[in-house]
Design a protein that fits this description.
76% helix, single chain, binds protoporphyrin IX containing FE, 3 helical TM bundles of succinate and fumarate reductases, two-stranded antiparallel sheet, mainly alpha, globular
Length: 221
Amino acid sequence: MSTIFTSSIGKKLMMSLAGFFLLAFLLVHLGINLLVIIYDDPMVYNKVAHFMGTNILVKIFEIVLMGGILLHIIYALILQIQNWIARPKRYSKANYSNTSFFSKFMIHTAIITLVFLAIHFADFYFKAKFGHTETLVVDGVLYHDLATEIVDKFKMLPFVVFYIAAFIFLGFHLVHGFQSAFKTYGLDNSRFTPVIQALAIVYSVVIVGGNTMIPLMIYFS
Ligand code: HEM
C-alpha cells in the first residue's frame, strides 16, 4: 500500500489525482468570479463568496483543496528532481527529445503559477481571512465586500497586465497537464488521445479566456 506514495507510478498517480481536483476547482472558481462582471450588484458575488466562506462542506473542501495544491507541488518536485538525476545531461540538439512544446516548460509554467498564487492569496484570500476587507451589513448579516475589492484591483493597469500574463502561463501549464493526467490513468490510446487533446485545448481556452475577461471588462468599463 505504501508504494502508492513512493513508487514512480504511485507518485504520478497521486500528482494527477490532485491535478484532476485542481482542474475542477478552476472551473468552479471561474464560474463564481464571472458573477462580478455579469451582475452590476456586488452583493450577488459577495453572497456567494459568503456562502463559500461559511458553509461547513465548502470549508472541508477548502482544506482538501489546499492539501491538493501541496500534494501536486510536492510530487511534481520529487518527480522533476528524479528526472534530472536520471538524465543529468541536457540534450545537445534542440527538439531532440520527443516531447511536445508545452511539456518542455511544465516546471517553468508551474513556478510562474506558484508565484502568481502567492501574490493572488495576498491580494484576496489572506485579506478576507484576516479581516482586512471592507465589510457590509445586509439584512443583519455581515459580508466581506470582495466584489468591490476585485473591481478596485482591476482598475489598476499593472494588476490587469500581471494577472493576464499569469493566466496565459497557467493556460500553457493546463494544456499539457490536462492530457498528462488522463495519460497517467491509462486513457491514452489511438481512440481517446485526439479527444483528450481537443478537450485539453477547449478546457485551457475556457479557463484563460474566462479569467482574462474579468480584469479586461472591469478595466475598460
Ligand atoms: C480574474 C480571476 C480571478 C479572480 C477575480 C479571483 C478572485 C479570488 C478571490 C476574491 C478569492 C478569495 C475568496 C475568499 O476568500 O472568499 C480567491 C481565492 C482563491 N483563488 Fe482566485 N481569482 C481569480 C483567478 C484565480 C486563478 C487563475 C487561480 C489558480 C491558478 C486562483 C486560485 C485561487 C485559490 C486556490 C484561492 C483560495 C481558495 C478559495 O478561496 O476559493 N484564482 N480568488
